Amino acid sequence: KEYKMTDYQLLKEQAEAIIETEPHYVAALSNISALIYESLDRLNWAGFYLMDRGSLLVGPFQGKTACIRIEIGKGVCGTAVKEEKIQRVADVHAFPGHIACDSASNSEIVIPLRKNGQVLGVLDIDSPDFDRFSQADQRRLGFSRTYNGKTLKIYVNRSGDPWDIPAGKILLGHCLQTVAPTWLTLAHHGFCVVEE
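and the corresponding structure tokens:
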């Protein structure tokens, strides 16, 4: 089955514009989930689950009512966290322990989001079509792990206290302030993607 081609470069530029406008993670992730939902053909759910007290808690999303919490190692999202790698599933009904939050979902891709070597959440995208997501989709959506062959990290500050993080090339957001030649401060409620 052929799908409308996604302009991932445009999607990236639009995501950057969203974060530049409002770096607070709730607002940023809300609009990024809407952007992904509108940009990719044949989706029925797109959004984020964030780590909270040892399990995944639903975050900003587009689609039908979602599962509120997912245990690590359970379903596609929980497996992505446990294995710390992207899960691209052609048929979710054949996936061991699949959690059917929306019975219309037939394929799924889940991308772990990392901070300081730790998974802080996942980007979860579902489709009513089987085998919806290609290797190319996985590569282009996996910006949280690699981009043009470079390893990246996503930093999200939810505590309100500034963090010091290793300096690198800023790929998304303007929420970083230089405080030393090799370190940067992540502003209150900042959301940034930097090259390791």
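(Above: one complete record from the training split.) The chain is about 25% helix and 35% strand.
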